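call fold(seq) -> tokens
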Amino acid sequence: MGELVFRNLLHRPLRTLIGAMGIAVEVALVVLIVGLTSGLLTETAKRIEGIGADIMLQPPGSSYMLAFGSAPMPIKIGNKLAEMKYVQSVAPVLFQFNTSGVEIVYGIDQDSFRAVSGGFVFIQGHDLEGPDDILVDDIAAKTKKIQPGQDYRIFDHDWHVAGIVEHGKGSRLFVPLATLQGLVGARDKASVFFVRCTRPEHTEDVMEDMRHLLPGYTIRPLKDYLSLMTSTNIPGLESFINAMILLAITIGLLVIFLTMYTTVIERTRDIGVLKSLGANQWFVIRALLSESAALCLLGIGAGIGLSYLVRAGFIWKFPTLTISITSAWILRAAAIALLGALFGASYPAWLASRKDAVEALSYD
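ret:
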């Protein structure tokens, strides 16, 4: 059986290659789509946690994805929070989504943000000093080829690059809060307040007091933010991932179906020979399913290699992207491809097993 399958695959090498690449595309799609979404969510969550705050206050009904937030909260809320027991410091931050760079820009008050986060680690340059200064993290600076002293234009405004900082403090771009408020028409407003407690064990007490002070507002502990940033908690993201996986499965299933269906048509006389030599229906089915499984295994191996190759290319071109390839999803993608291949080959295999030996031998 093994030699039969091997020779059948080598009989039409180009068709075997095309079939294997169809499976490879299926596996790579599943691995990369899941890896891209989970990688971006995890990386974003780690940067938010890297701010060092204990609590994050958002407007009522806010999403976990900070890019979907707005700036409806009065800045004076920060003063009330700072007066609460066990609160060490409060940092108001205004978010603005930069569509040209697909990134969130933080408008910060450098003194309060430094008090909450512990301050930036400067690689080059200095802190925000003027109203038009901007700080860029090292990854964004490398991607955009930015150096201190240059001008950088976003929001139809020219900013002076004051410094390059180490990544991991929430955003990749930081500008003065007052300047950003004026540019986006959100004067005296903030998108979020980061709160640092005097001690981490006081977090729950402070959150309870905040719920009484600001009923209806969204209050989240940052230590749990990483566990909250999953595809199931982001509206529509889980459906998108499932739709893409279904598309990948459909591609693999059709590739295998067409490959094995044309194989059965081409080998009608061969099937007749096997049946005349005593092969039963199960033998024919097993031979074709084994061939499709072997073809699928070749595709799975190629798909795993293609996933790492595409990830390397994307990260080289877009260093800010994070694509997380995990062994768990590689195994899931392989299992999905194998089951899809067996299912796609089942009808052609059944069709072949039903052929009459005499009719198959007379097939022209």
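The longest helix spans residues 13-49.
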